[in-house]
Write a structure and sequence with these properties.
CATH topology of the largest domain: Rossmann fold
Shape: elongated
Number of helices: 21
Number of strands: 22
Structural class: alpha/beta
Helix content: 40-55%
Strand order of the largest sheet: 9-8-7-10-11-12-17-22-21
CATH class of the largest domain: Alpha Beta
CATH architecture of the largest domain: 3-Layer(aba) Sandwich
Number of domains: 3
Distance between the termini: 92 Å
CATH superfamily of the largest domain: NAD(P)-binding Rossmann-like Domain
Length: 588
């Protein structure tokens, strides 16, 4: 109302080119302007606008409303100008002044309401796009926790230009900008949100305190919320390893038209075996597991992706320890060419507290499958072992070492018609209990990661590559082989934890950085856990035709092994409790 009355008075003064007393203007003129402008503005919803969110769309709406008002006032002026002193140019001048004054008042109020008295976090935006510009605009809101004060983009057209008063720098200036400024957040838009850019920032410029986030995380911050961690992390982003390229033709010759049985098919390793084997056109694929839900999941996964497998995939809900169930489970009359034995208890800490159960399941289950292999006259048997079988310090490792001895014992003493192979590998990403998924889950659900020891190192490989190499090892076989997969150098788990925190858009909380997000808590080594793992005994690795597969020439003495195997199998068959000290002494 004040803007309208003031603008009418100024319009008269401008028109007459002198100060014109506001009291000299006929009250009817004031009334005319007030009724028409307030009425039309109400119709256009001008007064419904929330001043805090006043923007260009509101200005356009206001301009449309005032143009309509001008038309009404001009028409009214034509009717009353002879009775009341009302120059015909006044409505034009007054409408422009009313527009300017209303916009000015709203802009000032918008700035006051949106001024954040608390200090916002400094941000560097890398990449200009519609979405990143939206984040910039939202960051001006009072509830926003961030303020974008630097922009970088590689587009030449944006060179020496500004957005919201902020100069756009070239990507080549990134190092200079990072050195001269302290940023709390570095926001990557869709184009730049990739591991290459993140590595440049983390490795080349060694940014310690800044959090690297994507646009989705930045939207949470501009809405006044704490940003959630990035969950979709890729194995190759976390662990710096080159991607593998499978030789499909070679495996097709080995697997095509073969009947294959996978034990532990519902587990992470077994299910990945099933997925990859299904690609190479097996005649039949038997999936054995004692978990109904796990079998249901892998079965549906296979037939959903390849409906042609619906008649080839056979489900066997059974325990490996029950050989008679296997013989009677419609397999007696079937031919099986290859068995992959992946069924086992695999969690280290569980084994330490459940010695008898782990030894019985892992050793007796394998023994029953080897017996079944002989009974069915299977041509090839592949036992999935572990690096923990080498100089074992845990019950899990001992169970795997006994398993390796047991396979060798069968080859030498019971059934040498089958080609046996043992495949050892370390930590595979994607398997149950793997440390990387565990860390990602911990970041999502708590404020700390748990690590047993700061110096712990492990071998790492993606589960897809580990299984591919396991399949490839079948092409290298003689009668009996132990294969070790080249998993590269051992990697510090502590460094991996730090990297996952960084790639998640968070910061590691330390004594030097008390304002960090995630703390790495050292819990102490578990029973049977080693600082470093070993893939083979001594220096007895022999190269094969595949650069990532080595043959382990272990010095297994059959007389010693035979005695130990007979003894442990006797204890298992009599269902006696196992003496832990004797077990460790026999198989350490």
């Amino acid at each position: 109302m004040i803007c309208i009355l003031f603008s009418v008075f100024i319009a008269f003064s401008l028109r007459l080119e002198t100060f014109y007393s506001p009291f000299a203007i006929n009250i009817t003129v004031y009334f005319l302007f007030l009724v028409i402008i307030i009425g039309v503005n109400f119709f256009f919803g001008i007064y419904d606008t929330v001043i805090r969110f006043f923007n260009i769309l509101n200005i356009l709406n206001l301009s449309k409303s005032l143009i309509i008002c001008a038309l009404f006032i001009i028409f009214a002026n034509l009717i009353i100008y002879k009775q009341i002193y009302f120059p015909r140019s006044v409505p034009y001048i007054a409408i422009v002044l009313i527009f300017l004054s209303m916009v000015f008042v709203r802009v000032i109020l918008n700035l006051i309401l949106n001024f954040n008295f608390s200090k916002k976090k400094n941000c560097l935006l890398i990449g200009v796009s519609r979405n990143s510009l939206n984040v910039m605009n939202l960051s001006r809101n009072p509830e926003s926790l961030i303020n974008i004060n630097s922009i970088i983009d590689a587009t030449k057209d944006l060179k020496k230009t500004k957005i919201n008063g902020i100069s756009i720098s070239k990507f080549e200036d990134l190092e200079k900008i990072l050195k001269n400024n302290e940023f709390d957040f570095i926001i990557l838009n869709e184009k730049f949100n990739n591991i290459k850019i993140k590595n440049i920032i983390l490795k080349d410029f060694k940014i310690d305190n800044a959090r690297i986030i994507n646009l989705d995380q930045s939207i949470q911050l501009v809405q006044g919320q704490k940003h959630s961690p990035e969950k979709n992390l890729n194995f190759h982003d976390i662990v710096d390893k080159t991607k593998f390229h499978p030789n499909k033709d070679l495996l097709l010759k080995k697997i095509s038209n073969k009947s294959i049985l996978i034990t532990g098919a519902g587990g992470s390793i077994g299910s990945e075996l099933a997925k990859q084997i299904s690609i190479y056109k097996p005649r039949n694929l038997y999936l054995l597991d004692n978990s109904e839900i796990n079998l249901f999941d892998i079965y549906n996964n296979l037939i959903m992706n390849k409906k042609i497998l619906i008649n080839k995939v056979k489900i066997i809900l059974c325990d490996c320890n029950k050989i008679n169930d296997l013989k009677l489970n419609n397999l007696k009359s079937k031919k099986i060419d290859i068995i992959f034995h992946a069924a086992a208890f695999k969690h280290l800490s569980f084994g330490e507290n459940n010695l008898d159960s782990m030894i019985y399941n892992n050793v007796n289950g394998l023994n029953q499958m080897l017996n079944f292999c002989k009974y069915m006259k299977v041509k090839e048997f592949i036992f999935i072992s572990s690096d923990k079988a080498v100089n074992p310090k845990s019950i899990l490792g001992i169970s795997k070492k006994i398993g390796e001895y047991l396979v060798f014992y069968y080859y030498k003493m019971i059934n040498n018609r089958t080609n046996y192979s043992i495949v050892r590998f370390g930590n595979v990403i994607g398997s149950s209990g793997s440390v990387i998924p565990k860390f990602i889950n911990q970041i999502s659900s708590s404020s700390q990661l748990t690590l047993s020891h700061k110096k712990v190192k492990r071998y790492f490989m993606s589960i897809q590559e580990a299984i591919y190499l396991t399949l490839y090892s079948m092409t290298l076989k003689k009668n009996f082989n132990i294969f070790a997969l080249d998993m590269g150098n051992q990697i510090s788990i502590y460094n991996i934890a730090n990297r996952i925190i960084k790639l998640s858009g968070m910061n590691t909380k330390t004594k030097k950085n008390a304002k960090g997000d995630i703390e790495i808590k050292i819990s102490g080594l578990k029973k049977g856990e080693k600082i470093k793992e070993e893939i083979s005994l001594g220096k007895n690795l022999e190269r094969t035709k595949h650069e990532k597969i080595f043959r382990c020439n272990e010095n297994f003495e059959i007389k010693i092994i035979s005695k130990k195997i007979k003894n442990i199998l006797k204890i298992i068959s009599l269902n006696k409790s196992i003496n832990k000290k004797k077990l460790i002494n026999d198989f350490k």
